[in-house]
Write a structure and sequence with these properties.
Helix content: under 10%
Largest sheet: 5 strands, antiparallel
Number of helices: 1
Distance between the termini: 12 Å
Strand content: 25-35%
Structural class: mainly beta
Strand order of the largest sheet: 1-15-3-6-11
Shape: elongated
Order of helices and strands: EEEEEEEEEEEHEEEE
């Protein structure tokens, strides 16, 4: 894919002014969806949290001219680079329904939906579902794309001490921020395997933020 150097990373709205005429690679991530909290409707009806979907991802190689400006949008619902690339946020997990991945458009190298989150374990110990990540194709295209989102929280009895909320995937395998990945769903805390007595819900994790990353090609 060639050698590149990061020129600017946007995690909020802004404007990119091209510093030098040349070739650039632009990667756009939609925000990752949040994992849902675990919950119970009664002492014997237990539900784990579900994972949020990953935001869409779009990647383009572009030739840009010095001094030209491009509006950049990074919000909780969409990310974009001018009118050239855009990516929608992944959907939040909701109750027992996992979040779906956001869509993307405009990438001349890649424009893919983020992967869906998952529902959690359907049986004891009712672990939370995982957040969505990105396909092997996307991961091979961009070192900023992670193949997995946040993991679901573990669940167990109060006495075990291992019950956990959902988690957020913080880094990719390259040690870079895992932009756009979904948050994991919350685990479930009960007073014991046989009693199924509800104690409390455990929180789902927030999805990773969206971003627009501009890199310069190094010849």
């Amino acid at each position: 894919a060639g050698t590149t150097a990061i020129v600017k990373t946007f995690t909020a709205n802004g404007t990119f002014t091209v510093p030098q005429t040349g070739k650039y690679r632009v990667t756009v991530f939609g925000k990752g969806g949040n994992g849902s909290d675990s919950y119970a409707t009664s002492s014997d009806m237990i539900y784990n949290g579900t994972g949020g979907g990953a935001g869409g991802i779009a990647v383009s190689n572009l030739t840009l001219t010095k001094g030209d400006t491009y509006p950049v949008t990074v919000t909780s619902s969409t990310s974009s680079f001018g009118s050239l690339l855009s990516a929608a946020a992944g959907k939040d997990g909701s109750g027992d329904t996992a979040g779906t991945g956001g869509a993307a458009a405009g990438g001349n190298l890649l424009a893919e939906n983020g992967e869906n989150g998952t529902a959690g374990d359907g049986a004891y110990p009712w672990g939370g579902g995982a957040g969505g990540g990105y396909s092997a194709n996307a991961v091979s295209m961009s070192p900023f794309a992670s193949d997995s989102g946040g993991t679901g929280g573990d669940s167990a009895s109060v006495s075990s001490g291992s019950r956990e909320p959902g988690k957020t995937q913080k880094l990719t395998g390259y040690g870079l921020p895992a932009f756009g990945t979904g948050g994991g769903g919350g685990g479930y805390e009960s007073s014991g395997y046989n009693a199924f007595v509800y104690v409390r819900a455990l929180a789902g994790a927030e999805g990773m933020p969206g971003a627009v990353i501009v890199e310069a090609a190094i010849e």
